[in-house]
Amino acid sequence: MTAIERSRVRRPGHRRTHQQTGFRPRLSPEGILTLIGVGAASVIALWWQDTESVVGLDGWLTNAGRITGLLAGYATAILLLLVARVPVLEREVGADRLARWHAMGGRYVVSLALAHTLLIIWGYSVTARTGVVSQTVTLVFDYPEMIKGTLGFLIFLGIGVVSARAARRRMRYETWYYLHLCTYLAVFLAFSHQLALGADFVAQPLARTAWYALYIGVGALLVWYRFLTPIRRSLRHRPQVAQITRESPGVVSVYVTGHQLDELGAEPGQFFRWRFLAPGLWWTANPYSLSAPVLPGQMRITVKEAGGHSRALATLRPGTRIWFEGPYGAFTQARRRSRKALLLGAGVGITPLRALFETMPGELTLIYRARRPEDLALRGELDAIAAARGTAVHYVTDQPARHAVPLTAEALRRMVPDLAAHDVYLCGPPGMTATALPALREAGVPRRRIHHESFEL
Ligand SMILES: Cc1cc2nc3c(=O)[nH]c(=O)nc-3n(C[C@H](O)[C@H](O)[C@H](O)COP(=O)(O)OP(=O)(O)OC[C@H]3O[C@@H](n4cnc5c(N)ncnc54)[C@H](O)[C@@H]3O)c2cc1C
Predict the structure, then answer these.
(1) Residue nearest to atom 41 of ligand 1 (CA)
(2) What are phi and psi of 293, to 5 degrees?
(3) Are residues 74 and 169 in the same domain?
(4) Beta carbons within 10 angstroms of residue 202's beta carbon
(5) Which protein residues are within 6 Å of ligand 1, measured from CB?
(6) Whole-model pTM over 0.85
(7) Which atom of ligand 1 is nearest to the CA of 311?
(8) Residue 280 contacts by C-beta under 8 Å, 6 or more apart in sequence?
(9) CATH no. for residue 322?
(10) Cβ contact 17:265 at 8 Å
(11) Predicted confidence (pLDDT) per residue in 233-275, tens digit
(12) What is the CATH number of the domain that holds 433?
């Protein structure tokens, strides 16, 4: 263990962080979903209030088109809100769940926008007694703001296609990410046709104002939290690389120095997005968890080679400037419901658990799985923390095969006899978590007490 590391191993629970002392609004993920649902119900109520009767096939089609259009517009604003990196959402819902909601919401938006387009074209062509093709041409070229609206819709469709799982797997993460940013252009293009043509907004100035407020509010949150806050924080805290140390084959720790880093309020278990201002790394900001609690002048991440970005970190020079975004993530002590906790990690998934292991109060057990003994990164530190806390660490490796322990309910219960009474913090590769989740459930751990951090967004 280095001198830097030794200074960190301290008794848990004695330090109140900036975030623990300040006021923090609390909202459960279910509460947030309920609020989103109430918003959607209000949108339907707006249509209901403006509609006296629905008559004939064209009436049904056009009104179904209006509802799907209104809902698509509302869902688009919510989709952007979910990725605006609003602290209360990041903390209470967690980045991985927000990413899942965003992906699911994206499917709703594309389906609703497609249904809206088809229903309106069909409804208008029945009313005008024209063919669908000539009605489409009329709608696109003769109605105000419709050329922009059509372009926005086509961009949405394109993004929907590249985001489909099969297409995304074949694409570099960065390519997908930059294509995905075209969503902002699509939203901008599609916005004005909603107000120019939406019967509900033409008839009701109040609804129009509320729609503007929704979009301007979400836009302001995006600009503030995604762009201005990271710039302000990076300028204020001036983070830069202090030192790189090798932890195990293919794994390095990056020590970061800066000005009053503890005032960022980062909690063990959280992560930042890191943009290293070094050749080839300027254009990507990748997420890495803190692998130790933050000190006033120091932070640390521990990274395993997975591709270009993570591999390049081993070659960073001390003094390299960093821009960061964060702290993010809900994988913290705040999630905990019982006094006992099991930290169950595998591979580089040990990083957030290492930080939690040092700081979490109460009775802890750590199980750390790796392929080979030499892959157990940060082992010296974990042993030192375990000794300081008087707690147990179980190292499990697949090799040599005679020492391998399967990840089953029975094996877990052997290591942690009263497992059902624990909260479990789980972080590891997708295959390991897919095995661990049913094993934990079988061992009697309720779903609400299993807290999972995924390294896949
Ligand atoms: C919340 C979170 C915390 C993480 N913490 C750690 C950690 O402490 N240590 C560690 O070694 N790894 C961590 N990861 C994983 C790490 O971010 C990726 O392995 C790394 O970004 C891969 O980038 P690459 O260019 O080296 O590899 P690539 O070959 O470019 O990417 C490999 C895979 O990593 C994912 N990925 C790549 N870039 C990003 C990005 N900008 N955002 C999200 N996912 C991306 C994609 O699924 C991609 O398919 C974390 C991931 C997340 C989401």
Answers:
(1) 286
(2) -60, 155
(3) yes
(4) 13
(5) 95, 173, 271, 284, 286-289, 301-304, 306-310, 348, 351, 455-457
(6) yes
(7) 26
(8) 308, 312
(9) 2.40.30.10
(10) yes
(11) 999 999 999 999 999 999 999 999 999 999 999 999 999 999 9
(12) 3.40.50.80
